[in-house]
Design a protein that fits this description.
The complex is a heterodimer of chains A (112) and B (852).
Chain A lengths: L5 H14 L34 H5 L1 H8 L45
Chain B lengths: L4 H18 L17 H5 L4 E7 L8 E7 L2 E7 L12 H4 L1 H4 L10 E3 L11 E3 L2 H18 L4 E5 L5 H14 L5 E3 L6 H11 L9 H5 L2 E5 L3 H4 L1 H13 L4 E6 L11 E4 L5 H14 L5 H7 L1 E5 L15 H4 L4 E4 L1 H8 L4 H8 L3 H12 L5 E5 L1 H4 L4 H14 L9 E4 L6 H9 L14 H11 L16 H9 L5 E5 L3 H4 L3 H4 L14 E6 L11 E4 L8 E4 L4 E5 L12 H12 L4 E2 L2 E2 H6 L3 E2 L4 E2 L3 H13 L8 H10 L11 H6 L3 E2 L3 E3 L2 E3 L16 H7 L19 E4 L15 E6 L15 H6 L4 E4 L1 H7 L6 E6 L3 E7 L10 E5 L27 E7 L1
Parallel strand pairs in B: 6-7, 6-15, 8-9, 8-13, 9-10, 11-27, 13-14, 15-16, 16-17, 28-32, 29-31
Antiparallel strand pairs in B: 1-2, 2-3, 4-5, 4-17, 11-12, 18-19, 19-24, 20-21, 22-23, 25-26, 28-33, 29-32, 30-31, 30-33
Classes of the chains: A mainly alpha (112), B alpha/beta (852).
Chain lengths: 112, 852
C-alpha cells in the first residue's frame, strides 16, 4: 500500500473535511490506525480503532460498504481507502464483486 | 441465503455506503491509487529490486509468496498466484513476513554462558567466536556420546526446512547411531501421524486443498481454522458464500471465529467427541445408511487395546498398559457394529451435552450421498488424551459413508507447521522414524536406508529401538538424565507443556535443566536462549535457501533472497561444522565417517560447502529423493522389490522442478519426460488432472467402489478401528473446577518470537488474555481487565481476564493463547499425552481461577 506519512494523511483528511477539494496526498489507502502506522508494499493495513466490532457484526459487507465500489457508491465518498483490484473477481474492479476468499477481511486486516 | 453472492455484495454495499458517506458529504479524498491499482506496483518495478519465489514460514497452509529485496533488504512479501496451494492468498502474518526479519535484537554473534547460575535470567551470555562456540558444543556432544549416548538429544521442528531435517536425521541416526531426536511436530501432528500409519500404513492425507473449493458440507472437528489456518478458512467461507446450499457444522468445545460461518455449532463437553463420532457411526449402521459397496471393497475392521489409562507418570510407556496400547485385532463388520451399538444418540447426548437431534442431523448429512462432505480437523483432535483414537473415529465415519480420497469428499487432517509434513514426517526426524515413512524398528527399512546412505549392511541395527519422544525427552531432562540437548527452529521454553517442571521451577529433584548442556540455534533471544549454554545465531527464512512440505503434500522451495545479518549462519553449516568435529577420527566401514555421510556437500578441510546453496540443496535433495525413487540406487531397488516396500508410491521429483513449478504435490510422476503432481491420492483418474492414475495402475486395483484403491494399505484395505469413549485424563473438581484450553490466534505464530517483533502484529494482539464466560466472571467477581491467577496441579500463571476475547468459552471453561512468554500459560498446562502418539493434551487441563 501507499507510503504516505502521517502528516500527509492528516492533511488529506483536513482538506477533505473543510474544502471537499481533491487532496492529492498520496495516502494510498493506508489508514492511520492509532495515528502511527505506515505500511510498506504489500502490507495490509490494520482496521482502525474506530472500526471495533464492525466486521464481527456486519461481516464483509460492513467493510465493502465504504471500501468497495459499485454503481451506487464510491469509496471516496466515505473517505475510505479503496480495495485494490486484486480483491475483486478477475482482478477487475468493474465486476463490483469481491473475489471469494478476500471476503474474510479480518484474515489480513485485523483490528489495530 | 437466497440471493447470489454478487447480489449480496451489491445490496449490502449500497445499504452501507449511504450510511457511511453521510458523515463525509461526499468529499473526495483523492488517495493516490485508483481502485484496483496496487500502490505496491511502483516500488515493485523500481530498479534494483530482485524478486524471488518463496513460501511462508509460518503455518501449515504453506502459502506461496513472492519476495522482493533491494539493497540486501526485503522490501515486500506478496502472494504468489502461481503457487497451487494458496493461489496468491496469504494472511496478515504472511504479508508482514519481511518485517519479522528486522527486529532490533536479531542474534548476530554466537553466545556462550560461562556461569550456569545465570540460567533462567536474561543475562549471563557473552559474545564468542564461531570456532569457540562450535568447539564447545562439539566437545560436549562428543563427550556425552562417548560416555553414554542415551543421554544426548536433539529437539527439532516442523519449521526445519527439508534438506536440513534430512541432514540432521542422517547425522543423528547414522552418524551418532542415536534415535534421541524428535521434532516439535510431536506436539501438534503426532496423533494424526499415528492415525495415518495405523489406518493406512502410510503417513499422508489423501486429499488436497482443492477439496475445500469442491465440497458441499464442511465439518470442522476441534479446529479453529479462522485463526490457525487463515488462508484455508478464507477459502471455506468463499465456498460457502458462493453457494447458498453449502453447509458448515462446527464440532467444538468453545465458540471461536470459525464458528461464525457455521450453520450449526455442536458444542461438546471436552473429551466427549469420540462418543459423538461413535454415535454417528452407530446411527449410520443401525439405519442402514452406510455404503455397503465401499465397505466391502475397501475396509477391514479392527479393535484395539482399551482402558489404557493416562500417561501421568514418567513410567507410563513401560507399564503394562503403556506397552500394549498399539495392539489391535481383526474383527468382523458385525462385531464392529456391535461395539458401536451402545453409542446411541441419547448416550452421546448424555456424555457430550450435544442434543441428540443435532448429532442425528450431522449423521444424516454424512448419509446423504447426493452431497460431498469434507471433515477438517486440527489440534482439538490431535492434542487430546485419546487423540489417535479420535483420528480413527473420524475416518470410521468417512469409511462407512464411502467418503475418502474423492474430490471434495474426504477427511483432512490439517498440519500446524510449514514443514510438519515435509520435514518432521516425510524426512523422518521422529525418534522412531527413518526417511520416507520407514521405521527404525523394521529390518528391511534399515537395510533400505543403509543402501542409500552407503552404510555397511546391519550398521543401523544399533538404532533398532526408538529413542525418546518429546515429552519423555523433557521429563528425563528435568530429572537430570539428559546431559546434552541441541534445539533448533523451536522455542521449547514457551511451547512445551508442564513448564513449571521442565524449567526447574517446581520440585527440587527436577532441576535438570540447570545441569544439562543446552545448545539453542535461534534468530532472536527467547526464553529458551535464557536456558542455553551456547546460542548459535541462525540465518532466518530467505536469508538462505530451503524447502517446506505443507499440509497437502506440496513441496515448495524458498530461494535465498538476502544475506543473514552479522555473523548469523545457515543451520546446515552449523550442522556440518559440529558433525565434522564430533566425527573427527571416526570411521564407518573403514571410511571417514564425516566424508561418507556428508562429503558430497561439504569440504571439511576447507570448512565450506562444495558449491552454492542451490547446489548443496539440490545434492542433498537428490540423495533424499532416492528413497522414493529406488531405481536411482541399484541396491535399494533390489531391496524395494524383494521386500515389497512400494517406495515409489511417494515419488519425488528432481529439485529444480519444485522451483520452476512453484511447488508440486507428491507423488510426482514422470510421464513421457514430464513430471506430473498428484492432488487426489489413491483416486483413479487422469494423472494430468491430478488423480493418482499411475499409482493405482502400478499397485492398486481399478474399478473398485468409488474408483479408489488404497494400495499402500495392508491387503489394500485401510482399517476402521473401533475406539471407545474413555474420559479425559482429569476432569474438573472442587479444587480445579475449570477446563483450560490453549492454542494459537491469528496474528502470532506459535510463541510469538518472530511475530511479536512486527509492530503491526504486536499492535493488533499485544497480549494474551484469558477468555472467560461472563457467568463465570460474575460468580468469581471478575470483570474485564482484572488480573487473575490460573492454577492447576502442574503450576500457575497470572493473566488479564476478558469476556470479549476471540473465543467464547462455555461456563466452566477458559481459553488463552500461548504466544506470550510474559504470561507463559504452559506453566500450568498438563504434559499428559495420548498413549499411542505421545502427543500432549493442551486442551483439557483442569484449573482453578481466582481474582488477584
Amino acid at each position: 500500500m501507499g507510503m504516505g506519512t502521517k502528516a500527509a494523511r492528516a492533511a488529506a483528511m483536513g482538506a477533505m473535511a473543510l474544502t471537499m477539494a481533491l487532496a492529492a496526498a498520496g495516502c494510498g489507502g493506508a489508514p492511520s490506525a492509532g495515528g502511527a502506522a505506515e505500511y510498506g508494499p504489500g502490507e495490509p493495513p490494520l482496521m482502525s480503532a474506530s472500526h471495533q466490532g464492525r466486521y464481527e457484526s456486519l461481516g464483509m459487507a460492513g467493510c465493502y460498504g465504504c471500501h468497495g465500489a459499485n454503481e451506487a457508491t464510491d469509496h471516496m465518498l466515505a473517505a475510505a481507502p479503496a480495495l485494490p483490484a486484486d480483491h475483486y473477481v478477475d482482478g477487475d474492479v468493474a465486476t463490483f464483486e469481491v473475489f471469494g476468499p478476500r471476503g474474510e477481511c479480518i484474515t489480513c486486516h485485523p483490528q489495530g | 441465503m437466497d440471493i447470489t453472492r454478487r447480489k449480496f455484495v451489491k445490496a449490502s454495499a449500497i445499504a452501507l455506503a449511504s450510511a457511511a458517506a453521510g458523515g463525509t458529504m461526499g468529499a473526495l479524498s483523492g488517495c493516490g491509487t485508483e481502485s484496483g491499482a496496487p500502490a505496491a506496483a511502483a516500488s515493485a518495478d523500481a530498479a534494483g529490486t530482485v524478486k524471488t519465489v518463496g513460501v511462508c514460514r509460518f503455518c501449515g497452509c504453506g502459502c506461496g509468496v513472492i519476495v522482493e529485496a533491494k539493497d540486501g533488504r526485503l522490501v515486500s512479501v506478496t502472494g504468489d498466484p502461481e503457487n497451487g496451494s494458496s493461489r496468491g492468498l496469504n494472511c496478515v502474518k504472511g504479508y508482514y513476513l519481511a518485517n519479522a526479519l528486522y527486529g532490533d535484537d536479531r542474534l548476530t554473534k554466537p553466545l556462550i554462558r560461562d556461569d550456569k547460575a545465570t540460567k533462567g535470567t536474561d543475562g549471563g551470555l557473552r559474545e564468542a567466536t564461531w570456532d569457540e562456540a562450535l568447539d564447545l558444543v562439539a566437545a560436549r556432544l562428543k563427550e556425552t556420546w562417548k560416555a553414554d549416548k542415551s543421554r544426548l538429544a536433539f529437539w527439532g521442528s516442523g519449521q526445519q526446512p527439508i534438506v536440513e531435517g534430512y541432514a540432521t536425521a542422517k547425522f543423528w541416526k547414522a552418524g551418532l547411531l542415536s534415535n534421541n531426536i524428535d521434532p516439535n511436530a510431536r506436539l501438534c501432528m503426532a496423533s494424526a501421524v499415528v492415525g495415518f500409519m495405523n489406518i493406512f500404513q502410510t503417513d499422508e492425507p489423501a486429499g488436497c486443498y482443492a477439496d475445500i473449493d469442491e465440497t458441499d458440507v464442511f465439518v470442522t472437528w476441534g479446529a479453529n481454522m479462522a485463526e490457525a489456518h487463515p488462508m484455508l478458512y478464507s477459502r471455506l467461507t468463499a465456498r460457502k458464500l458462493a453457494d447458498s446450499n453449502v453447509r458448515h457444522y462446527d464440532v467444538t468445545t468453545l465458540t471461536t471465529r470459525t464458528s461464525a460461518s457455521a450453520d450449526k455449532v455442536l458444542q461438546f463437553a471436552p473429551g466427549s467427541d469420540i462418543a459423538i463420532a461413535n454415535a454417528i457411526a452407530n446411527y449410520l449402521i443401525q439405519n442402514n445408511l452406510y455404503d455397503r459397496e465401499f465397505v466391502a471393497d475397501h475396509i477391514q475392521f479392527k479393535q484395539g487395546a482399551e482402558n489404557i489409562g493416562n500417561a501421568f507418570e514418567d513410567g507410563y510407556d513401560a507399564s503394562e498398559a503403556g506397552k500394549t496400547v498399539d495392539s489391535v485385532e481383526n474383527i468382523t463388520f458385525e462385531q464392529f457394529a456391535a461395539r458401536l451399538a451402545p453409542y446411541t444418540l441419547e448416550y452421546a447426548e448424555e456424555v457430550s451435552g450435544v442434543p441428540a437431534a443435532d448429532i442425528q442431523e450431522l449423521a444424516e448429512v454424512f448419509a446423504d450421498k447426493s452431497r460431498k462432505v469434507l471433515s477438517l480437523w486440527t489440534m482439538g483432535v490431535n492434542q487430546h488424551n485419546r487423540g489417535t483414537w479420535m483420528n480413527h473415529c473420524i475416518y470410521n465415519i468417512h469409511f462407512l459413508t464411502g467418503r475418502y480420497a474423492l474430490p471434495g469428499d474426504g477427511a483432512f487432517s490439517l498440519t500446524g507447521q510449514p514443514s510438519a509434513c515435509g520435514t518432521a514426517r516425510e524426512v523422518g526426524t521422529f525418534s522412531h522414524r527413518l526417511p520416507a515413512d520407514l521405521l527404525v524398528a523394521k529390518a528391511p527399512h534399515r537395510r533400505y536406508s543403509e543402501a542409500i546412505w552407503n552404510l555397511p549392511e546391519g550398521y543401523l541395527d544399533a538404532i533398532e529401538k526408538p529413542g525418546m519422544h518429546t515429552v519423555k525427552m523433557f521429563r528425563e531432562l528435568s530429572k537430570g538424565n539428559v546431559d546434552f540437548l541441541w534445539t533448533a527452529h523451536n522455542n521449547w521454553a514457551v511451547s512445551m507443556p508442564n513448564l513449571t517442571r521442565f524449567l526447574g521451577r517446581g520440585d527440587s529433584d527436577k532441576q535438570g535443566i540447570f545441569d544439562c548442556f543446552i545448545c539453542v540455534s535461534e534468530v532472536y533471544p527467547t526464553l529458551s536462549t535464557q536456558y542455553a549454554d551456547v546460542v548459535l545465531p541462525a540465518a532466518m527464512w530467505v536469508e538462505r535457501e530451503g524447502a517446506f512440505g505443507n499440509g497437502e503434500r506440496r513441496t515448495a522451495v524458498f530461494e535465498k533472497a538476502i544475506d543473514p545479518p552479522g555473523e548469523a549462519q545457515w543451520d546446515l553449516w552449523m550442522l556440518m561444522e559440529i558433525a565434522k568435529r564430533v566425527l573427527e577420527g571416526e570411521t564407518i566401514g573403514g571410511q571417514d565417517a564425516f566424508d561418507l555421510l556428508f562429503g558430497a556437500v561439504y569440504d571439511k578441510q576447507a570448512g565450506q560447502f562444495k558449491g552454492s546453496q542451490r547446489e548443496v540443496c539440490r545434492t542433498l535433495w537428490e540423495e533424499y529423493r532416492t528413497f522414493s525413487n529406488p531405481q536411482l540406487n541399484e541396491k535399494a531397488a533390489a531391496i524395494n522389490a524383494a521386500e515389497k516396500l512400494k517406495m515409489e508410491a511417494k515419488q519425488l521429483a528432481p529439485y529444480d522442478l519444485y522451483i520452476e513449478n512453484h511447488g508440486l504435490t507428491w507423488p510426482v510422476r514422470e510421464v513421457n519426460g514430464q513430471w506430473l503432481p498428484t492432488l487426489w491420492r489413491f483416486c483413479d483418474g487422469p494423472q494430468e488432472d491430478g488423480f493418482d492414475q499411475l499409482g493405482v495402475q502400478q499397485y492398486g486395483e481399478q474399478d473398485l467402489a468409488a474408483g479408489v484403491s488404497f494400495y499402500k494399505s495392508a491387503d489394500r484395505k485401510p482399517s476402521a478401528v473401533f475406539r471407545p469413549y474413555e474420559p479425559p485424563a482429569e476432569v474438573p473438581s472442587q479444587e480445579y473446577p475449570f477446563w483450560f484450553c490453549t492454542g494459537r490466534l491469528l496474528e502470532h505464530w506459535h510463541t510469538g518470537s518472530m511475530t511479536r517483533r512486527v509492530p503491526e502484529l504486536h499492535r493488533a494482539l499485544p497480549s494474551a488474555l484469558l477468555d472467560m464466560n461472563p457467568a463465570d466472571c460474575e460468580r468469581l467477581g471478575l470483570k474485564d481487565g482484572d488480573r487473575a491467577r490460573v492454577t492447576s496441579r502442574y503450576g500457575s500463571f497470572e493473566i488479564t481476564v476478558s469476556t470479549a476475547g476471540r473465543t467464547v468459552p462455555p461456563e466452566g471453561m477458559a481459553f488463552a493463547p500461548f504466544f506470550a512468554d510474559e504470561t507463559l500459560v504452559n506453566l500450568a498446562v498438563q504434559d499428559v499425552y495420548c498413549p499411542l502418539s505421545k502427543e500432549p493434551d493442551f486442551k483439557k487441563t483442569c484449573v482453578a481461577i481466582e481474582k488477584i
